[in-house]
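INFO  loader      accepted 1 record
INFO  loader      residues=177
INFO  predictor   begin
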Amino acid sequence: MCENCDCRQGEPEDFSALVPVLEKYGKTRGSLITVLQKTQDIYGYLSLEAIKHIADKTGVKPAKIYGVATFYTQFRLKPIGKNLVMLCKGTACHVNGADLIEEAISEFLEINDGETTADGIFTLNNVACLGCCSLAPVMMIKNADGDETFGNLTKDKAKNILDDIRKRELNEQEAAG
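INFO  predictor   done
INFO  writer      dumping tokens
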């Protein structure tokens, strides 16, 4: 296992959790996107090993699967941090300062859109719209505990939210020892 994330570089992946997905959708024409979505839901991203496994079980060429996975922005080919920070860049958020919020988040976390912090705690992902226009600018943070939305952001408010989450994560890591 990597020091900074949950991926298992160099170790064969266990695809037993994919068995029901592939049994249900694996032979159904036109279901590749569904298989990829469910795979990403299970593992957090689409590893090359998962793509090869899906190809082997469905008969779809790995190049086609990879092409679909790289075409659609919903798919990730790298592990993400424990907390996925989705910053809304829709019209209302843009008009209300989303670019300034992104700048503050990027400076605070030392990452840009699509990147993960070195400690594996955060991944920043700009999204088209979160549907919370009345809270603009807004970000949603997804993690194992669920989704939490934060609105009416300022640069300081965004940094404070992320700082609180980082402190909580570090305290949990320390307690786990």
